[in-house]
Amino acid sequence: MSEARPERPRQLERLWAVPVVLGAVAAGVTSWGSPLAVALLVVALLPWAAEQARRPLPEWLFAVLAIAPVVVVTVLVDLNASMFLVTSALSRLVGRRSTRRRIAAAAVVGVVAPFVPVLAGWSLNVGGVYFAIGNLLAIVVGVLLAHTRSLAAELRAADARLAVARAQEERTRLARDVHDLVAHSLTVVVLQIGGARRILRTDGDAAEAALSQAELVCRESLDGVREVVGLLRTEGDDPLRSWSLDHLVETYRAAGVPIGFDLRADLDALPIIARGTLSRVVQEALANAARYRTPGSTIDVVIRHDRDVLVGRVTNHRPPAPQAPSTGGYGLPGLREQVERVGGGIESGPDGDRWVVECRLPTGAPRSVVVAQ
């Protein structure tokens, strides 16, 4: 589509041939008794023929060849339809580039040209007034065409900028999805491998089971990344499986992280956008909590549905060192944008000796949601 756009203006410019040819034919009929006038009309048609052949002349040469011979014709045989060639030339020249100097020059030529025969001795013809007005109107049309051409170029540039912005937004979204998935999976794998290393010499079977679980999580993470970037798409996949909070919690429990899970909402009855956003928030919060919690402490996950608001709250006991809310630029700060985009809110921070992450998502009609501390 984009390659065809430059051809369209060229096709539209061929319409200039209609008044030019009609004016030349009418002028040739009235000037048939003067072979020199007919020859001059042929010369005046040459720059237009070059335009149609897509071999345009320099604009100064186009102006000279398209206007001067016509003015000479009017001197030889008086004012006639050949003046339409001047009208078309002026409109075309201004339509290509409508600078103030060019518009002023075209206006002077357009007003003076119809009265040149009078200076050569012909009687004053009222048609000169009409042609002068027509030339000025043609210049106005040329200015409008130039303005339209400029607007079209600006629109194409704006469309290109929007395409770049959309591509950047899509890349950012994919980066966030991959970050959320990989951060969660790697946290579980690190916990599994760490546990296996500690019990490798004392309980080989348990260590092998932990490594098998780590391998399973890695495979699930790889499949998820492939799905996010569009490299894998199978008809049998269940897109809601990755949103299952039960599966998410059991994954961490299997890695040896004690998690208290309190579900007070029927998630299957809620809007898909609320379920998906809640799953992303809980997944990111659990990944951070598992990294920064006090060893041996329990992470509490509470999900409840208060009227038209779905609340997700993840808390963990803070270690002595301050807890960072996320690593990289696509963690909770990135999720905050997603939550706010659906009309919700999210907060994270210390609450006594615990670190709290809480999000509130609307499940009814879209509205602004105020997050309480």
SSE layout and pairings?
Elements: H1 7-13, H2 17-30, H3 35-52, H4 59-77, H5 83-96, H6 100-112, H7 116-119, H8 126-199, H9 204-228, H10 245-254, E1 259-264, H11 272-292, E2 299-306, E3 309-317, H12 332-341, E4 345-351, E5 354-362
Parallel strand pairs: 1-2
Antiparallel strand pairs: 2-3, 3-5, 4-5
Helix pairs in contact: 2-3, 2-5, 3-4, 4-5, 5-6, 5-8, 6-8, 8-9, 8-11, 11-12
Main attributes of the structure:
rod-shaped, 373 residues, 5-stranded mixed sheet, alpha+beta, disordered C terminus, single chain, 61% helix, disordered N terminus, 12 helices
Q: How do the strands of the widest beta sheet line up side by side?
A: 1-2-3-5-4
What low-confidence regions span 5 or more consecutive residues with pLDDT below 50? Answer: 1-7, 231-241, 323-330, 365-373
Strand content: 5-15%
The rough form would be described as rod-shaped
What is the β-strand count? 5
SS element count, helices: 12
Structural class: alpha+beta
Q: What is the CA-CA span between the terminal residues?
A: 52 Å
What average pLDDT do the residues reach? 77
